[in-house]
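JOB MANIFEST
job_type = single_chain_structure
chain_count = 1
residues = 220
[input]
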Amino acid sequence: MKPRVLAVLAAAALLLVVPTAAQAKGATAATINGGGPGGLPGGPITLSGDGEPGSSTDLGLLAQGSGLYTVVFGDDPGSILKAAPTDRLGPRYTITWTFPAPEGGKDRKVLQHVYPYAAGGPVTFTPAGQPVLDTTTTAAWYQGFDGLRHQLIELGLPNRNPLTPAPKATPAPAPAPATPQPAPAAWPRIAAVIAGFLVLAGGAALTLRRRSHPGATTAH
């Protein structure tokens, strides 16, 4: 086979395995900003390159750790949350992802909020209604692993520990059952009744005796 033919075949094979920008299904760039008034001390952090799912680049790892592809592609719906997993979220940052348009037009931007220091692990939230690839995002919360916090710190975010979970309310102890009091002894009441009866009986006997033996009349 001629060398020119081999070169054409090799080029054709390469086109089959290397996706074009329009065919790619991963992010091509990301910009991190926020964290409070003034944003990041060093300014926004920008990543670019290969962000395909499964890639080991900073961009690919950030997309994987933030749950971006889980939310966009819905490959693990069980890990998508309808509400924030904690009320201790900490400062909020914003990642602006860049995706190629499926028709090869203008790139599309997808906003994702990230809370790196949330209690229990970093939390992200993707607002609904954002066009991306051939779909539209739905509102979704996602809780990742602590590796995402470490990666964001390495990229330039403040080195902070995660927030501690809110203390669980301790239920009040159940009141102790009342100790039954022993019934008062019956004999004092019986003795009192008998004593009262004897007093009444003695008084009645004395009265009868006086009536049956009236005093003698004195003679003159």
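[summary]
Confidence is low (pLDDT under 50) at residues 2-23, 216-220.
The helical segments are 3-17, 58-65, 68-73, 146-155, 187-212.
exit_status = 0
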